[in-house]
């Protein structure tokens, strides 16, 4: 242990500034691998250039550029590669994932709370999953509430932890560049529906076009297509407009129009929900609690009493899995 601490482990006494400091980023001698990789790559580029064909002015300029680059590299740490993000050197399959930086979290909170931008729009704009955006907003609201109440935050501990893991920093220039995408993670992954786990051989004619909607109907009549089940279905329309070479101004107008329709539908749904609660929900208040009494229809529980909208269907309604004599295997094939 002491031989390792005095040898390769000596580099871990002082953490790297602005970089992760994982075991997988060093060799057995304690040398940072990406520094050696950068030097080898630079030497390969220098070997490609034949200095004998350069003039004296070009040679002098090349020497000045090399000295300036070396001076800059002394104060600048190379960015981590995929191999540098392995906390456990013997586990090559595990990579430490990036987390949201503090400035990016603050930007997400301002967009949602201050500018009243829709959650899905913010998710598509910054490349952050909608569930993560919602969690950031909730945690930021709690943090600001604590600050207003005068509670002390563990800021030094949070900053120390943030320096140990890779981060996705907020870059406004990259966000405003139409040719580049600002992304933190995959935001449009489609969850696997239980209906699609079965293997079905469905005959269809070769002369017809078999779409995703047709495939969904084969699995179940109530199953929506993949285009309708993904979290951000509006990205499909944006991509179609780009493929069809729609002018940028028209694409922007269509995006704005779709966002306005979505916001109007959301406000209309909230209005109807409030009207329904005003008619069917009665609130009785006391000193500590508010009791809500809601009008229900007994027919919503279904014929077997296990309907999704039935009262108490989540609590106290026993399953028949462990009852004696209950047949759990199918007895016929429809």
From TrEMBL:
InterPro entries: Ribosomal_mS45. GO terms for biological process: mitochondrial translation. GO terms for molecular function: structural constituent of ribosome. It comes from the Eukaryota. One of its GO terms (cellular component) is mitochondrial small ribosomal subunit. Residues 50-84, 318-327 have a biased composition (Basic and acidic residues). Pfam families: Bot1p. Residues 37-89, 304-334 are annotated as: Disordered. This is Eukaryotic mitochondrial regulator protein-domain-containing protein.
């Amino acid at each position: 242990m002491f031989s390792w601490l005095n040898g390769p482990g000596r580099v871990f006494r002082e953490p790297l500034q602005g970089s992760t400091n994982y075991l997988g980023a060093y060799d057995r001698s304690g040398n940072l691998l990406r520094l050696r990789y950068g030097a080898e790559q630079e030497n390969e580029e220098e070997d490609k250039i034949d200095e004998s064909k350069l003039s004296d002015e070009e040679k002098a300029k090349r020497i000045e550029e090399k000295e300036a680059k070396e001076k800059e590299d002394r104060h600048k740490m190379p960015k981590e590669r995929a191999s540098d993000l392995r906390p456990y050197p013997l586990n090559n399959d595990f990579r430490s994932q990036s987390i949201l930086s503090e400035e990016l979290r603050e930007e997400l909170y301002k967009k949602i709370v201050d500018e009243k931008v829709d959650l899905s729009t913010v998710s598509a704009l910054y490349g952050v999953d909608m569930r993560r955006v919602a969690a950031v907003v909730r945690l930021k609201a709690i943090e600001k509430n604590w600050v207003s109440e005068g509670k002390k935050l563990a800021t030094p501990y949070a900053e120390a932890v943030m320096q140990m893991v890779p981060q996705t920093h907020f870059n406004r220039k990259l966000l405003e560049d139409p040719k580049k995408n600002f992304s933190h993670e995959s935001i449009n992954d489609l969850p696997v529906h239980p209906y699609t786990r079965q293997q079905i051989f469905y005959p269809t004619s070769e002369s017809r076009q078999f779409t995703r909607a047709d495939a969904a109907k084969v699995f179940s009549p109530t199953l929506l297509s993949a285009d309708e089940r993904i979290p951000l279905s509006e990205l499909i329309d944006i991509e179609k407009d780009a493929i069809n070479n729609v002018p940028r101004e028209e694409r922007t107008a269509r995006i704005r129009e779709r966002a306005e329709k979505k916001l109007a539908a959301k406000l209309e749904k909230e209005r109807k929900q409030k009207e329904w609660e005003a008619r069917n929900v009665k609130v009785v208040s006391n000193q500590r609690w508010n009791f809500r009494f809601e009008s229900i229809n007994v027919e919503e529980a279904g014929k077997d009493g296990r309907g999704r909208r039935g009262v108490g269907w989540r609590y106290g309604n026993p399953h028949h899995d462990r009852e004696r004599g209950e047949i759990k295997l199918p007895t016929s094939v429809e």
